[in-house]
Structure formats: structure tokens, C-alpha cells
């Protein structure tokens, strides 16, 4: 039996809206959203952890770099569970690096560090955790992208209108850097 809850974000969610409630979610059954060519599935967020951390997966096709962005108050973890993902990151001193991550590999991005990633193989998957003094940003995916009821990648990429990017920083600690250039190999 699967329990569904009404939340302020969705009329039906398998994630309880308030902290202090244990719960279980079967694979793929969290709150889903499509953004670009990816499927994002949220398993725990700010509502459940008193804004302590979030836990989500991102699955996507081989493709373009997800745009460079920065979280000023949030640390982010990338743990690859399938395929291959190239992580680009710049430290606070401006030094850039990139690393190809494969299943079992881990990447850590401190708050304030610009970063981006690219799926290098079809159906690559990253498990993400984000935490910081500013709270969590998991609802960003639905705000910028589109909530998804069905399993699977979007049929067509969900590319937000340019003006929609400007609405995100104040709500979700995600600021896009459209002019950022990567000088790694």
C-alpha cells in the first residue's frame, strides 16, 4: 500500500508534508519533475528535514551541459549510480576543474562555487544531496521545469523561457551564470 499526501506543492505526493513522520518510497515514486532533458525525483526535502537537507536523483540522456550555476548558501553532493557524468566546478579562488564520474564516484561542491554537469552516457543517474544554512532547493526543479506525474524522461526537453531563470535565485538559492565559461580541457 502506498500512502499519498496533499502538500502545498502537489495535490498528491508520496512525501509527507510535515517533519517527524517516517515514510518509505518505492524506487521512482517520489515527487517528479522534468527539467531540460532530465527526470528529477525528490525523495526528501525541506519539509521533511526542517530545511536541513534534501535527497533527490537526476536521470538524463547523454547531452548538453546543464547551465553553470551557483548556490551561495548550499553545499551539493553528486554521487553517480549509473552511466557517466562529467562534473565541472570552480573553487572560490577561480581555479576550475572537471572530472568524469562513473558509478560509485562522488563529487562535492562547496557553497559559493560555480558548477555544471553533463550526462556522458544515456540514462546516467546522479543521486544528489544538498544542505546548508540557507535551507534546501529541491522545489527549484518543479518551479523552473515542469512537474511530472509519469515515470521516465521527458519526450521533449523542458527548456524554461529566459525570463523564468531570473525568478529562481530569490526562492531557491540557485543563480544561473549565463556568461560563465569553462576553461578546462
TrEMBL record:
Residues 60-119 form the Cupin type-2 domain. It comes from the Bacteria. Transmembrane segments: none annotated. Gene3D superfamilies: Jelly Rolls. InterPro entries: Cupin_2, QDO-like, RmlC-like_jellyroll, RmlC_Cupin_sf. SUPFAM superfamilies: RmlC-like cupins. It holds the Pfam family Cupin_2. PANTHER family: PUTATIVE (AFU_ORTHOLOGUE AFUA_8G07350)-RELATED. This is Quercetin 2,3-dioxygenase. It comes from Streptomyces iconiensis. The lineage of its organism: Bacteria, Bacillati, Actinomycetota, Actinomycetes, Kitasatosporales.
